[in-house]
Specification:
single chain, alpha+beta, SirB1_N, Transglutaminase family protein
Length: about 280
Amino acid sequence: MPRMNDVSRRRWFADAAREERPDLALLCLLVGMEADPGLDETGIDEAQIELDRLAGQLPFSPGGPEDWAAALARLLGGRHGFRGGPADYRRLGSSLLHQVLRRRRGLPILLSVVWMEVARRAGAPVYGVGLPGHFVVGFGDPYGGHVLADPFDGGRPLSAEDAATLVSGATGTPLSPSMLTPAGPLDIVLRILNNIRAWASARPERTDVRLWAVELSLLLPSHPAELRYERAKLLVERGEFLTGAKELEDYAEVVAAVEPDAAETIRRQARAARAMLN
């Protein structure tokens, strides 16, 4: 099967992000298509089938939230060995769902996606919880009786004190109730793309990865406006001086009304980019 071109992939991603109920697994797999030339439509189907297969191994309606969390921990953390470690933060593949399904290793948020998608297919009351610095999953009513589990640690149950420790270790601030709010599919995808951008930012030779992560983020219905500025600067850095300069000028117009000094700084950057052609 021939590989989809950039336009077709991006259109598929943008359309999937605008569905009434966005398919989280599909969006994560479409992110993987940007990174992995070997992933095609057949590979995406195979990854979805693998999630279905794993869900089929869960017991039927095991009980309450604690029982669901325990069943997922036994299946995914125990039997199939899904978990993470420090080395996983150094791999781009740890942010790509199809590779996480194959390696059984990944970042907390990707392992949580596996848990959520497997549990959802089995009928579990599951949701994602984007704690600062560490993504986990919840089972039950997020505003009432619920339990938390950490897929990165094989599904270890998290008490309120455990969650507070995770937050304090990551940010130095106490846990607040708002941090336990369920994360929507598009919020999760944006956070995954932010992780990829951070990975690439630490590797100056991987501006290609950083650029496509920014461009996918811009296709989401809601995204930080500053990403337009980041994309423009990346284009200049990669030698696309005219396109980058034009986008810098366009962004300067956007911010001029509220931050005139910042807008003028951006215009100077655009002029410098154009001068690179002389």
